[in-house]
């Protein structure tokens, strides 16, 4: 059992809009505070995300993001699709909000990206704990003759393929 937990706290222009979005994916509301500093949290199968409201923010310029690794990213993807269909909703693959299709990664895993109405990018990827060192070394060997900048870009693509 893990002793530590990291929970992202992301901005949104409307808590009501963001909460509705996540509830349509199957998340439940854990906490909601209105008033001078609106704040809320949602959870789903061990994933917990917190939000604070910034009414003046523009979702198109949001830097909010988090990376969620899973041993069953395909199951997460399918579950989100089922909840959307059950609630009579469809998710666009472009724009804001969106959910990309499930994509293969360079290390043999897969993942997808979710962008909520606040413009926050949530990256869901297959957990690669044991393979990360091997794949990073492979990229290093393959790009040994390239310049440092190109090498770093390749390594970044291996670690963050959906960014």
UniProtKB/TrEMBL annotation:
GO BP term, example: response to antibiotic
Source organism, top-level taxon: Bacteria
SUPFAM superfamilies tied to this protein: Glyoxalase/Bleomycin resistance protein/Dihydroxybiphenyl dioxygenase (SSF54593)
Keywords in alphabetical order: Antibiotic resistance
Record InterPro entries: Bleomycin-R, Glyas_Bleomycin-R_OHBP_Dase
Protein name per the record: VOC family protein
Native source organism of the sequence: Leptospira idonii
């Amino acid at each position: 059992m893990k002793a530590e937990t990291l929970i992202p706290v992301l901005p949104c222009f409307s808590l009501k809009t963001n909460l509705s979005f996540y509830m349509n994916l199957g998340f439940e509301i854990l906490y909601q505070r209105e008033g001078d500093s609106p704040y809320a949290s949602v959870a789903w199968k061990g994933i917990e995300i917190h939000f604070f409201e910034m009414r003046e923010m523009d979702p198109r310029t949001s830097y909010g993001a988090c990376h969620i690794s899973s041993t069953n990213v395909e199951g997460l993807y399918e579950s989100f699709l089922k909840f959307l269909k059950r609630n009579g909703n469809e998710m666009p693959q472009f724009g804001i909000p969106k959910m990309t299709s499930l994509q293969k990664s360079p290390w043999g895993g897969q993942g997808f990206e979710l962008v909520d109405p606040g413009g926050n990018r949530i990256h869901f990827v297959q957990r690669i704990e044991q393979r990360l060192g091997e794949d990073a070394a492979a990229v290093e060997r393959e790009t040994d003759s390239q310049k440092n900048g190109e090498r770093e870009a390749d390594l970044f693509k291996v670690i963050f393929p959906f960014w």
